[in-house]
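We both want to read discrete structure tokens more fluently, so let's practise on a single case. Would you supply a protein for us yourself, any chain you care to pick? Would you write everything just below, so we can both look at the same thing?
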Amino acid sequence: MKRGYRHGNLRSALVASGLELLDAQGLEAVTIRAVARAAGVSHAAPVNHFADRRALLTAIATDCLRELMQGIEAGQQTAVTARDRIFALVDAFHAYGLANPNRYRLMWRQDMLDAADPALKSLTDGLFELVAASMQPFADPPGISAMSRIVAICSAIHGYVLFRIDGAFEGHEDEKSGEPRHRAVLEALLP
């Protein structure tokens, strides 16, 4: 779908077109030419904003991470306890991944992104800090560092979301607690 842009908003129009292509057709469809075409500009126009596909994908992933962070922060605003805060975080990851599978996958594709990009790095560091802060009230198991536990939490939740996206797991409740499975996975890792 061609879209026009207003002078000065080309970068935003290109990112928006990239998000639309990503959602509709997947990562392979997001090229400089395709994004330019979708934005209604010549294939040479993006060069003023994105040197290459990696830069474009980094800008798109940055927007996706910003959306995820907003979802986490919104969920945590109503959290009362430390347990509520960590579950709000996991709920946001789960909901975002299932609602936006192509966006979710792109956010973690370090082979396709510029991890040194200041905006992307700021968001990924902020996300890590948010996970770490959410885990801080919980005691670490004996002999295990806080960092290893954070990595375990991130790995378990990320892995579960990817399994759901790929159709390997269905969205069942835990057989004992009745909690949604993504929450039960986290519960298994908390003291």
